Structures are given as structure tokens and as C-alpha cells.
Amino acid sequence: MRRIMMLRKFLILTLGCMMLFAFSACQQSPAKVRVAEVTRSIFYAPLYVALSKGFFKNEGLQVEVQTTWGGDKTMTALLSGGADVALVGSETSIYVYAQGANDPVINFAQLTQTDGTFLVARNHSGSFDWENLKGSTFLGQRKGGMPQMVGEFVLKKHQIDPETDVNLIQNIDFANIANAFASGTGDYVQLFEPTASIFEKEGKGHIVASFGTESGKVPYTTFMAKKNYLSQNEETAQKFTNAIYKAQQWVEKSTAAEIAKVIEPYFEDTPADVIETVVDRYKQQHSFALNPVLDEEEWNNLQDIMSEAGELPQAVEYGDLVNTKLAEKAAAE
């Protein structure tokens, strides 16, 4: 009898272990997605919302974000396999395509839909006119990047020739542009947030215009991946896009204060009130895309801006580098 009881316990224990093993095996580990972001910016608030609010986690994804500091470094990380997804300006996908890439980089989810820079004046009398820039020293962004191309596009829109009407400085590294202006270089500077708002708060300059408002809608920052990655990991890419769409909707429905509180951990060196100010400014000018669909009009506007700046290596058809399948499905569901 004792042997029977021991055998029964053994069978029960064995069955329990087998069930536990089977249960564990059925629990799929989260799919890992490595994202290379071109810079750390409040401009990308929906991405950090997706991380903080658990939208990626709810989709069964483990998303890791690394800041690669520059479009060229970001694309290098993507093309070399150091990242699965890149968050960078859509112009970079055109540059790669023009070089004859065998595995082109595809834009599959849009994050921002305007330029994110502002015109900051050293001295401000209370009123501003673009004519004020004529004869001034203008500290612009790196040549070939979207900020510089949009900057020149807007100047020309206001009948200002960047080559002859202003003393245009473009040989300062991106990371040092703000310091150069603070040190006394330039009458005007093109700056991203939160630097523009911090300068205004500290009395170092005054925000007088928005390049985002002036240039119209463009696919300024998008999530992109190599074509082969998207085809081989369609389910993962779809879940990623779903999470981004949920974050975009949350940002649209939330106040600047609520958004600032959620993304504050990603900007420990920026005062909370400045984060809120910046978020509000971007919301007011509709910089955050409402959904991840990159439409053809925005794509054509991008190429017009690049062409005007003399930086478009070749015209690229919308369907060659843009895939809206994932974004449309995310928005529909």
C-alpha cells in the first residue's frame, strides 16, 4: 500500500512538472525590437509615451531605444544590422536608395509631420518680419539635413536668398550650434526644442517664428526598416506600428501637462515646466502626427524641399520607399 501511495505521489509530481513545462513553453518571450533614434528629443514624445504607458509591452514587444546622434550614424546602425528600426528623417531613405542599395530602407510609420525647429533672435523689439533677416548673420543647421533644407526653403518662401541676403553659417557641428549662438555668434539661429525655450527663459534669445508652421506638412521623422526585415518580421512590425498609433492617439487626447509628466523620465536634465511648454508648442502647431500613415502629398512636399535645396539626388516614387500597409491596418483597428 505504501509503495502504491509513493508511486501515486511520484506520478502526480511528474504530471505537475510536465504541465508546468508545457505552460512555460507556451509562454512566448517578447519579440525584441532595437530602435536607433537620430537624437533624443521632446519632438518624439509619442515614442516615449509608447514606452512609458506600456503600449509596446501590451503588444508583446520588448523595445530597446539607443540614441545614435546624427542621420548618418543612425542609417549606419540600421544598414549594418546594429538596429532593426531607425527613427530619422525620411530624406535619409532617399539618400540610401540613390546609392543603389540592394535592400532599400522603407518608411513604414510616420511620427512627426512638421519641421521641429524655431527661429530664435538675439534681439527682439516686439514685432518680427522675415525681412529683418536681410543683412543679418544667420546660424543655420548642417548642410544636407532636413533642418537646413527646411530653413532655406522657408527663407526663399519669404524672398530671402540664403546665399546673398544673409551671412549664412553652416560649418558648425550640430551639437555646438546652440553654444556658438550663446557665445555671441549670429543674430539669428535655427534651434530645436527644448534649447529654444530654455534660451528664451534664460534671456539668451527670443523665439520669433516656427519653421514647422512655415514649411507645411512633411514626413520629418519616420520609423523605417530594411525591406527584407519588414517582409520577414511583418507581425512584429505590425505590433510595433499598433503601439505607435495608440501613443499618437493618447498624445492627441491628452494635455501638455499630462504628456510632460509621462515623458519626463526621458529628459532628466530638462525642467518639467520647459518640457510642458515644448510639448504644448508642438501640439499647437500639429507637429505630432495623428496616425502613422505617411501620405503621398507629404512625400512630394519633402522632395520639393530637397530639390529646392539642391540636395535631391533623384526623384523617388512614393510607392518605392513608402509602405502604408502596417500604418493603415493599425489605424483601421
Automatic annotation (TrEMBL):
Signal sequence bounds: 1-24
Task: Give one Pfam hit by family name.
Answer: NMT1_2
* Top-level taxon: Bacteria
Q: What is its main location?
A: periplasm
Q: Which keywords fit this entry according to its UniProt record?
A: Signal
| Locations listed in the record | Periplasm
List the GO terms this entry assigns under cellular component, sorted alphabetically. periplasmic space
Q: Which Gene3D superfamilies match?
A: Periplasmic binding protein-like II
Which sequence ranges form a coiled-coil region, renumbered to this chain? none
Homology family: Belongs to the bacterial solute-binding protein SsuA/TauA family.
Q: PANTHER family, alphabetically?
A: ALIPHATIC SULFONATES-BINDING PROTEIN-RELATED, TAURINE-BINDING PERIPLASMIC PROTEIN
Q: What is this protein called?
A: PhnD/SsuA/transferrin family substrate-binding protein
Q: What is the lineage of its organism?
A: Bacteria, Bacillati, Bacillota, Bacilli, Bacillales
